[in-house]
Amino acid sequence: MAVSANTRKGGWLETATIVIEALAIAMVVRTFLYQPFNIPSGSMKETLLVGDYLFVSKLSYGYSRYSFYNFIPFEGRIFAAEPKRGDVAVFKLPRDNSTDYIKRVVGLPGDRIQMIRGVLHINGKAVEMRRVEDFVGPPSTCNVLRNGNITVARYIETLPNGVQHELLDCRPGAEGADDTSVFEVPPAHYFMMGDNRDNSADSRFDVGFVPRENLIGRADIMFFSIAETASFFAPWRWPFEIRWARFFNLID
């Protein structure tokens, strides 16, 4: 049976409409609800690994101009909600307002933050750290050059609100990281730190305090993970390099 030109045209229009609608829905979800991100560095090990892919909730903290890729310029936030201490948050790097960073919120507005001999102090009180089984992994974990795996001290840190998370101590006594002056967090700003404490560019260094309007969202759930050694040109290895156990893990 012959197919008329009108029928073929109608089929193409229907397909195009479906594609456009799907793209529009995806754009709305990405802009207002959840945005995918991937982890390019080890500054949040062991919570997040290089090769993790995760969804960030943009609803969690409301919206600023950075939520809309700077297309809609305005000051402050709308539908704003405050981050909680211990949240893993994505934000725009303050010095350029374009680079995405992901760190843990450890300091809230008005807090006094200090590192003393590798222990985080909040408002003059030491945060509890409990030593657990050492981490054994690649040298890139601590940004060192050597063959074979390295062994790194691992701790469970308990923040004042009860949030617990793992952290690594690559270089005990690291200059500028383990002992700092007191940082007083300004109003409407936050103090961010990586869980890989000695291998993280964060608020102790040139990242500085993060303005509230620079927040993009809270990291909520992982949807994919693959080893950092995986190669695009060796797809036959992917089934063995995908970290299946990390799929759909909640981030805390």
What is the number of beta strands?
Answer: 14
DSSP strand (E) fraction?
A: 25-35%
User: What is the fold-level CATH name, i.e. the topology?
Assistant: Umud Fragment, subunit A
H and E string:
HEEEEEEEEEEEEEEH
What is the CA-CA span between the terminal residues?
60 Å
Radius of gyration: 22 Å
Give the class from helix and strand content and strand pairing: alpha+beta
Query: So how many helices?
Result: 2
On the 0-100 scale, what is the average pLDDT?
A: 88
Question: Strand order within the widest sheet?
Answer: 1-2-14-3-4-12-13
CATH architecture: Ribbon
Model description:
With 252 residues, this protein is α+β, with helices and mostly antiparallel strands. The chain has one domain (5-246): Umud Fragment, subunit A. It has helices at residues 5-33, 238-241; strands at 34-38, 52-57, 88-92, 100-107, 112-116, 119-122, 125-126, 128-137, 150-158, 164-169, 183-184, 189-193, 210-211, 215-225. It has a 7-stranded antiparallel beta sheet with strand order 1-2-14-3-4-12-13. Strands 7-6-5-11 form a 4-stranded antiparallel beta sheet, with no helix packed on it. Strands 8-9-10 form a 3-stranded antiparallel beta sheet, with no helix packed on it. The longest helix is centred in the N-terminal third of the chain and has 29 residues, at 5-33. The radius of gyration is 22 Å and the shape is globular.
